Amino acid sequence: MTVAAIVPAAGRGERLGPGQPKALRELGGVPMLVHAVRALSRARLVDLVVVAAPPDGVDEVKALLALHDIGADVRVVAGGSERQRSVALALAALPADVQVVLVHDAARPLAPSDLVDAIVSAVLAGHQAVVPGLLIADTVKRVDPDAGLFAPVVQALSRSDLRSIQTPQGFDRDVLARAHAAADHMGNDDADLVERLGCAVVVVPGSNEAFEVVRPIDLVFAEAVLAERRANGAF
After folding, report:
1. Which position among 63, 64, 134, 233 has the lowest Cβ density within 10 Å, counted as fewest Cβ atoms?
2. 3 state DSSP class of 197
3. Structural domains of the chain, ranges and CATH numbers in brackets
4. pLDDT number for residue 81
5. Mean local confidence (pLDDT), 154-180
């Protein structure tokens, strides 16, 4: 059974400030996109990685990936202006024999390869949709969203049944394709689209290193993770 991973990387990521697309921001001297593709390609169970690049940057992304030791079959296609469109275009470009599809954010460049394999294994075990999640450490409260700056607490939520969801997310290809075909807007993530079909989504343990780099301070944390990996010979 062939497994493919899709990396939507056509967005700009304005929360990191103006400049080049977020996926091309450097981490340890290497673009985050390269880190993300490496993690996917080094997973034992992934056969193909497809990157959805900015429509005007396909050749640039191809050249960038060619400069680095990726070590797997990597293809680049033109993405869309919205994440959902990028994933749909990459899905359409997959070979016919692909039956399991991962979707992974380039903004989570340090997701470990063993997490990737764990997601694939869960799909291969029969689950149609699998996402990694972490227990929430902070206290979570629901507030009145229309109250303005001083929002009163409406409800205190139990953390025991809440998870912070990460990527890569894994799917049966047919289910994911149907979810995107039926989508009228992106929602929170690809799993959200699958849930709208009425399909069950299961959560498996995530990784503290699979955090999303969306703010400048996140780059500092990511550099610290890279430094620790180098020190342990795991880079």
Report:
1. 233
2. coil
3. 2-231 (3.90.550.10)
4. 83
5. 95
